[in-house]
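Bumping with the actual sequence this time:
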Amino acid sequence: MMTELVFEQEWSGNDADRERTTPKLPWQHPYKQGYCQVGNGRTAQPIHLYYELHGQGPNKVALIQGLNSPCQAWDYQTTFFAALDYTVLVFDARGVGWTGGSWDWYNTEEWARDFLELLDYVGWTEDVHALGQSAGGQVMLKALLLDKDPTKRFRSASLLNTTAGGTRPLAGAWTLATNLFVTPDQQIARLIRTSYTKAWLDAPSENDSSKTNFDLVRDRIMTRNARSRPQTPGAMLSQAIASLRHWVTAADLEKIKATDIPTLVVTNAWDNFVHTSHSYYLKEKLEPRKFVIFEDAGHIVPTEKYKELNNLLDIFWHEVYNESNPPNEQPASPL
């Protein structure tokens, strides 16, 4: 694995007395990598959270990945938005990729506190467009509740295929549980089959008609894994338990709605990890500015429908900007 050494700056602001490695990324756009120490006073030992910043635009976007997935699962989004007027923040959650941690009895509230501490570390205290996919959406909900001034911090909130809590489809839970007992190659294949629609997986890839989309996704996952670190069974279990324990009450959702932060809720018609009815529940309670259904997509919309999702987000964020900046009052800087 190709790595380069970087010096970490501790949460306290003092230079660390050790070196940490970061993966060598293949992108041509400007990007930064680093570590942020989180969990001081909340964990037995502080966690060194790995993060990436993509692009140099004035508009801040934070992406929160789902269960047991590295931040590089957002590749379709980071490469797209980094080429526009955005800077995109992604990170590995505890026990995933380059972030420390293994077995830890934590929950989505602690996960959200890690996220908020990272935002503070990079200086993103206002006007952040935040988006959470699946378990990342659960973390997004908690962050909106925990932040001292969410209306200042978050310019918008987007929730993709997520839940306020409750039961989950058996197929996804069974796949995650039994993947602990199969080979890494089998884990990848089983997760792909459970996460994407069969019709899409069997279709030829738009970039290489000699391969199917299944081949494309498998190859991308293997490439990402080659520049990441294997996840321990304890870390896998910790995140799964955190997601399953997650609960946001109707009263909490009312508090989020009362902030009037522009919200986007995205769902699909076929999902083995989150009941699509949970997105309809969020629609009912939050009354989002936009509610979008991808009828022919599985759980991983950021990959299966990346073009449509990227365009949707870009339009939504521009609409949010235009609402608060009428044409005759807009400043020189975009968004």
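The tokens above came from a reply further down the thread. DSSP finds 13 helices and ten strands in the chain.
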